[in-house]
Amino acid sequence: MAIKKNNKRTKIRLENVGPISDAKLDLGDLTVLVGPQASGKSVFLQTLKLAADRNHVLAFFEQQNVVFNGDPAAVLNGFYGRGMAGMLDNNPSVTWEGQRYDLSALTKFKKPKSSQTESLFYIPAQRVVSLPSGASQAFSSFNFGDPFVLRYFAHRVHILLQNEFGSTAQLFPAKGRLNENLKAPIAEHFFGGAQLKIEPKDFTKTLTLEIEGFSEGLPFLAWSAGQREFVPLLLGLYWLCPAGKVSRRDSIKWVVVEEPEMGLHPRAVSTFLLMVLELMRRGYKVLISTHSTVVLDLIWALRQIQEDEGTEADVRELFGLNSNPTTKQIADSALAKDYSVYFFERGEPAQDISSLDPGSEDEAVSNWGDLNGFAGRSADVVAKFVSRASTTAAEK
């Protein structure tokens, strides 16, 4: 039985935007972008943020006393990063919500200007920079020309730590944040039993890892690379999953996570994907950019379970979850969701490779956007070498 596409998918198209020649995507409940460096994945995701939330973005710049004086180039340099205004030279366009815009049109308020709701929350690839030495940073701590998505994410984390965790030092495990079925694998695969705390140090609230038997907490730069990458991501998830009876941020529809696998072991990556399923259960639609085959392994497995009419028990087995009402809800929700994967290649149109069919004649599909390409080539080379060596030995 073929997997049915959700007819309510949101469509977006970018033409001649930076390295993107043409990217026409139907966004599912979980949309994954793959492709080599500098192929346009980050530009696509940031442009989605600008298209979805331009009034919110422009208003927030104004609140921070950033004045553009109607200059589109200045807005793009402030939003994407200094120098990115050069994209305007190629007549870039964006089609969003059925309407085609020149990219420069997205640098101006959409009427009514008073409508400034944020609908997309962005966790950027540079997230580790949001916590230098373990201390949170406000928007104004960065320089003009640093990407907006980084500055705004850092600002959100700063407000979260100052307000929602202002009266407690314990960040993980945190009471009322995430459910116990998520806390256990996070504790095992990210923290190894350590506790994440925020403590005053030199008059600044600073993150530390408290390890049983150690006389003092480990500072940020003494953590593993994966822990430094994951903690800001965890804090972003805390913001998306408020404490108490409120399950989500009502205005937020989309969640973007760039390269969640950075510094992580495959087991930790699968734990992150479990958290993505929880976000989808709460009603968020998620977009991920990745270079990890683990992410695509799990997407492929979920699609196969759907196609073969598997059950929530199969999903739970995939993620190593025990059977209880919460894990069954997460698994049932995962089976009802829509998954899509797109391959970005410099100078080529973005390609839908959602089937991830290893037997496809299209190499972009069978090699999963070339993430499996090297493994396949290395296997071919070794097979040829072994065959040649065997032939040589036989001739002797």
Task: Describe this protein with a few key phrases.
396 residues, alpha/beta, six-stranded mixed β-sheet, four-stranded antiparallel β-sheet, 14 strands, 39% helix, globular
Notes on the structure:
This protein is of the alpha/beta class and 396 residues long. The chain has two domains: 12-357, Rossmann fold (3-Layer(aba) Sandwich), CATH 3.40.50; 358-391, no CATH class. The chain has eleven helices and 14 strands. The protein has helices at 41-63, 72-79, 148-164, 180-191, 225-240, 266-281, 293-307, 312-319, 325-335, 363-366, 373-395, and strands at residues 10-17, 20-27, 30-34, 93-96, 99-102, 120-123, 170-172, 195-201, 204-210, 218-219, 254-258, 285-289, 339-343, 351-352. It has a six-stranded mixed beta sheet with strand order 6-11-12-3-13-14, with helices on both faces. A four-stranded antiparallel beta sheet has the order 2-1-4-5, covered by helices on one side. A four-stranded antiparallel beta sheet has the order 7-8-9-10. Strand 9 and strand 10 form a beta hairpin. The chain is globular. The termini are far apart. The model has no long low-confidence stretch (mean pLDDT 92).
